[in-house]
From TrEMBL:
Source superkingdom: Bacteria
Protein name: DUF1989 domain-containing protein
Annotated ranges, domain DUF1989: 50-204
Annotated InterPro entries: DUF1989, UAAP1
Amino acid sequence: MLDLDKLTPAQYRERYEALQDAARVRAASLSSETKFVNIKSEEVFLEDAIPPGWYANLRLPRGTGLRIINTSGTPGAAFFIWNKEEVSERFNAGDTMKLQWTTNLTTGRVLFSDMGRVLASIVADSGAGHDAIVGPNGPAQTMGRNGRDNLRTAAAKFGLSRRDVAPALSLFSPVAVDSNGVMRWRGNPQAGAMVDLRAEMDLLIVLSNTPHALSPTQEATGHISYIAWQMPEADSQDLCRHFTEEAARGFINNDGYFAK
């Protein structure tokens, strides 16, 4: 086993660059758009739609799936998750990108907690683009309902406070960096864009139907729908468990957590 404490600075740099190169090769080998499973009606235990400007707070058991559907191409949806059994463990946007060497969170990627464990996996994605850097809109962008306030209000329904809400993931939010290094909105996602998530822990979830902070339109333009269903158990060849070395270690941490 590699003893990281005995590596020289040069060896650390070599290891860093090797991990980065391997991650880029893996990312280039996978299309962001994947086939979505057909959800049977008997598997569904929760289904609803969120009107423009509103939010939902959900409890999702470990091993179940959540399909989120942007039915009308509205410009973004704010999303945040906690470990239901220990709410101090929550989604960490920085680690999710850093540990997987990418800002492109799509099929095969996972959502890391701030304790090095995997809260949820992205098992299918239509490729609309999801942003974990800028975040949802706030009072500065609109006089109406906004993502930041909605996330805090929804968290309060779980008995949580403002301090429990960290930087969120913005679903259906295609942004890119221009030649001047400035992040720009790339246009609204297509109507019907979807993403499927699998809960890797018992989760508390908040989902706000409010625009991304960079969207030229600062009012949601349609409904966001969601379906929660009982998924088949992930097998040993599951893509998300092995797509990156970092994710594999995250799942090892999960296994140790649940073995207690």
